[in-house]
Amino acid sequence: DVTMSLTFVVEPNAHPLSAAQRADLLVDPGFGRVFTDHMAIVRYSTDKGWHDARITARSPVTLEPAASVLHYAQEIFEGLKAYRRPQGAALFRPDANARRFRASARRLAMPELPEELFLESVRALVKADIDWIPQDEDGALYLRPFMFASEVFLGVKPASEYLYIVMASSVGRYFKGGPRAVSLWVTREYTRAAPGGTGAAKCGGNYAASLAAQADAISRGCDQVVFLDAAERRWIEELGGMNIFFVFDDGSIATPPLDGTILPGVTRDSILTLARDAGIAAREERYSIEQWQADAASGRLTEAFACGTAAVVTPIGRVQGEGIDFTINGERVGPTTQRIREALVAIQRGTAPDPHDWVEEL
Ligand code: COI
């Protein structure tokens, strides 16, 4: 198979930013605004398969106005991080992202990128831009692999040509304002994904569909929107861009089950595993908004947190919506949230053993 032996031709950026310019950008990068010198790119066409794999200077992509992604949104993406190590860098569960990228491709009727090619693209880009990994304890290189239909055609069908690109962004925390509990707005107006839809795929369309609801949340002074299920409008699904966990007074934790409408988060999965390792009962079960309100009022619910590659583990301090307004744990980070966050981050940063072989050092 030609594809499997594809190696990345490295064309170094002839005009990289200077060390001083880079250092300036890394002081307070925020999230998703600072981009590195290089990108990985691979092309696909139905007749040639995967070809033309390169690491090259990050540069604009030229598209025909009729490129089908611009009309019918055939696009998928991933998010994963590279962390600084004394000698080099480390990736966290990149194989899980490679696998999910294939699953997303199937749902969007796109060609499945071989997992080894995904992994090679990420490794090669991190090596090219290793100096862009921030030094500080919240910093990382956020990798954004994505693929879109580039065929010039307005018929509605799976395209015959695609571009796969990986870019890298030096990041700090996702939420502005330092470590703090975030607030949520429960939308009754919008849903994110229906049974049979694309909710479990990481496609741009899901995020496009979330933006009006997310903007609504922001306009009400909240950080993230909470989506309820589309069928019954009761069951908590996920937030605008992250999964959610609940912590109870018996020490157990719970998160909504993967029933096809929820993004199967790598961080979500890692937390379930780490919690069980630590002897914490961790359930995947449906949890309704009514129950959440009642449990917050009675004290059965003691903490809640958001999780994702970008958000890591972020405490939830306040929940609002029509007829809903309650706070959780005095809007402070709770002990279980803190413990889970520390356990996860320690493995990612290499300060604790890695019993599940999640970390790949480069
Ligand atoms: C991530 O956590 O990596 C995400 O994809 C969330 C968001 C930035 C889209």
From TrEMBL:
Keyword Cytoplasm recorded: no
Pathway: Amino-acid biosynthesis; L-leucine biosynthesis; L-leucine from 3-methyl-2-oxobutanoate: step 4/4; Amino-acid biosynthesis; L-valine biosynthesis; L-valine from pyruvate: step 4/4; Amino-acid biosynthesis; L-isoleucine biosynthesis; L-isoleucine from 2-oxobutanoate: step 4/4
Annotated SUPFAM superfamilies: D-aminoacid aminotransferase-like PLP-dependent enzymes (SSF56752)
Cofactor(s) the protein needs: pyridoxal 5'-phosphate
PROSITE patterns xrefs: AA_TRANSFER_CLASS_4 (PS00770)
Top-level enzyme category: transferase
The name this protein goes by in its record: Branched-chain-amino-acid aminotransferase
Lineage: Bacteria, Pseudomonadati, Pseudomonadota, Alphaproteobacteria, Sphingomonadales
